[in-house]
Write a structure and sequence with these properties.
- The chain is α/β, with parallel strands linked by helices.
- It has two domains: about 240 residues, Glycogen Phosphorylase B (Rossmann fold, 3-Layer(aba) Sandwich), CATH 3.40.50; about 170 residues, Glycogen Phosphorylase B (Rossmann fold, 3-Layer(aba) Sandwich).
- The chain is about 40% helix and about 15% strand.
- It has 16 helices and 14 strands.
- The strands form two sheets. Strands 3-4-2-1-5-6-7-8 form an eight-stranded mixed β-sheet.
- α1 links the parallel β1 and β2.
- The protein is globular.
- The chain starts with a strand and ends in a 7-residue tail after the last helix.
Length: about 425
């Protein structure tokens, strides 16, 4: 079987959860004898717009389209771009995929789904976040308010702050008149939402990695009955070795909390630093592993987090970017892992990584995090965005060795990459043998 993966970015430049998921599937399918290719977007200012680069990473062939938004003339171009589609069609014609598995279309073009179907491929779409229906991707406003439902009136207040030139007062060449301008904004957002609903209806299969994510898409108008839940898989070997090699923490060593992942406002690192400060004790440390990344129009997040951490001195360390190979070593040094996300999370890879590495996990009582943890049995949950409640949970772990031991030893189910690949292969229309 020839499998073409489509994702917004890929290794080695980008190492987020979706990229690692695609990487794992690619290796699993290659091991089964299938042919794979990754089509992704790159954003390199020193390379020509729409240039298509071919390269390999870890033996995985990649076709990377350079795109810098130079041709964006309106909001619709953000999610439907004919030139991106044309370059994708070239790749699809050459590779002749049996299946196109779409993982993320941010910074690409949603109608790659239609292009893949017209090329004769079966199309599977995995919804790894909420970008298909929320232009911000995480159903969260710049003020970090959650949107459980998609409401175009609320979108009309939010989205223009990202793309002001195409909405409301910023509309080029149009006089601003409040009622008429807002009506135009609502109308183009309604067209966007209608397009996304229809597009997902044209896919052969739509997948979410959690039940909570499926429920949110159902509320958006994508019927739950049309969505298959397939949990993402993880490579167990390296992290299981971390768990097996753990030794007792020396009694005089500080208790070390950790965060791993991209450092964005929606990931709640500011809540974690605030909670850590409230512990007000010298026998704890906090290690933040991850790169500060831009988040739409919010440009001061790194400065805010650093200002919160500064009074805590060397008790808080912001380590910056890490590579996939660094994860086992990072987790081996932690006594607890904290997942303080403020958005729903569609799956939450991080808490499963903690499970496999034998690290107690504290997470927000929200979305896929709450779905993945049985509070008090497999991990601890706290009220999302509440640093006082998080500090309570953190203190409980520091002071209660029996609780830590119980959380680590509890039975947990984390799917392997191979199990995940097998489940998806059935959606692809295959049974596991390559051709």
């Amino acid at each position: 079987m020839r499998i073409l993966f489509v994702t917004a970015s890929f290794l080695p430049e980008s190492i987020g959860g979706v990229e690692l998921h695609v990487r794992g599937l690619a290796h699993a399918y290659r091991a089964l004898g299938h042919e794979v290719l990754v089509f992704c977007r790159g954003g390199f200012p020193d390379r020509p717009e729409f240039d298509l680069e071919r390269y390999e990473t870890e033996g995985i062939p990649v076709a990377r389209l350079n795109y810098l938004f130079s041709d964006c003339v309106d909001f619709e171009t953000v999610y439907r771009n004919p030139r991106i589609r044309a370059r994708f069609e070239e790749v699809a014609a050459e590779f002749a995929p049996d299946v196109v598995h779409v993982h993320h279309l941010t910074c690409l073009s949603t109608d790659l789904v239609d292009a893949a179907k017209e090329a004769g491929a079966r199309v599977v779409v995995t919804l790894h976040d909420f970008w298909m229906g929320c232009p911000r991707g995480q159903r969260m406003t710049p003020e970090l308010e959650l949107c459980a439902d998609v409401d175009v009136e609320r979108c009309a207040d939010c989205v223009p702050r990202m793309w002001g030139g195409w909405f409301g007062r910023g509309r080029d060449g149009e006089a601003y008149e409040p009622a008429a301008s807002r009506a135009r904004d609502v109308a183009q957002l309604e067209r966007y939402h209608a397009w996304i609903r229809a597009l997902l209806g044209r896919a052969d299969a739509v997948v979410t990695p959690s039940r909570s994510s499926r429920a949110l898409f159902d509320r958006q108008g994508i019927p739950a009955s049309s969505i298959t839940v397939v949990e993402n898989g993880i490579d167990h070997a390296a992290l299981a070795a971390v768990a097996a090699s753990r030794t007792a923490r020396p009694p005089d060593a500080p208790f070390r909390f950790g965060f791993i992942g991209s450092v964005l406002p929606t990931k709640g690192v500011h809540v974690l630093v605030d909670a850590f400060a409230r512990l007000a004790r010298d026998d704890v440390r906090l290690d933040v592993h991850g790169e500060f990344l831009p988040w739409h129009e919010v440009t001061d997040y790194e400065a805010r987090v650093r200002a919160l951490a500064a009074p805590l001195g060397d008790r808080v360390t912001l380590h910056g970017r890490y590579g996939p190979g660094d994860l086992p070593s990072i987790l081996s040094r932690l006594d607890a892992l904290v997942v303080p996300s403020l958005w729903f999370e569609a799956f939450c890879l991080t808490l499963r990584e903690g499970f496999l590495a034998g690290v107690p996990v504290i997470a927000s009582d929200l979305g896929a995090m709450a779905e993945g943890i049985e509070d008090g049995a497999t991990g601890l949950l706290f009220r999302p965005g509440d640093p006082a409640d998080l500090a309570r949970a953190m203190a409980a772990l520091v002071d209660d060795a029996a609780l830590r031991d119980r959380l680590v030893r509890s039975e947990k189910r984390v799917r392997t990459v191979e199990e995940n690949a097998s489940d998806l292969l059935r959606l692809y229309g295959g049974e596991g043998a390559g051709r």
